[in-house]
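Re: the 312-residue chain
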Amino acid sequence: MSIPLQQTREWEQLQNQLGETTFFQQTADFTFLAILKKTRFLNYLYLPYGPVLNTKTAAKTAYKALLALAKENNVSFIRIEPQDLKNASYLLKLPNLRKSTDLNPAHTWLLDLEKPKEQIISDFAQGTRTRYNQSEKKGITITVSDNPDDIHPLVQLQHKLAREKGINTFSEDYLRTELAQPFASLYLAHYQVEGTDKIIAASLFFDYDGVRYYMQSASDYDYRKLPSAVAILVSAIFDAKEKGLKAFDFWGIAPDDAPKDHPWAGFTAFKKSFGGFARTYAGTYDLILNYPKYHLYNFARRLNRFIRKLKA
């Protein structure tokens, strides 16, 4: 099976540049990139969208390798996110497995870029198609950059959004390091405000193995009536198609059975308005190796969240 970007040497290089300690193993049967996470209470290994298992029997071999790595690094649990449920069935039936909060999306939305451009546009929802047609008329222009020095508008927009919505965002150093990778590109939506060029939306995309991923994004709420996000996405979709990529991954949606007030309901509807299809992965799980430390770690995290709520 194909190897997700988050389980490659390229992703390992990004993690190393961000200061993470990593371990990469690849055999004919499995591949995994494990990131060593150190907390006040314990160490654990995190395999974003991994391990990658080529056969059902590969799970046992991969688990054995992970246990050896865990022992060498005094690890209390191993956090896994296998994409292939069938080949990961052995891991997902282990008695020490516990479901964790999904880190990378367990549900995502993809668009087939091998269809004709006219068909892709035709599959847009009517409202999205209208906003796409209006974007140029309203004076929105799109530029693309792979220069890390151009990351600041995205940082500013994300921080503004964080203040307005009370959400967490990445640091400028983090986003700058992401844009410095050979697989990254930054799309910026420009709008003229009283004769001055203003960036009102920005999005970061990753290209890997025939797929473009919609990774980081933010729009200026003051200009929410303008179709800046649609303009960026349509430009990114057709640029990816012209580049020869085969699919566009919108990176995360709410599950089909999610309630109407699900925090992802709004942007799930927005992403689905471009047409496409859903894909489901196994989700995030913890393989517990040291129960006392694991329970202490989770108790401390719950207590910390409770204290932050009281201070908010």
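The radius of gyration is 21 Å.
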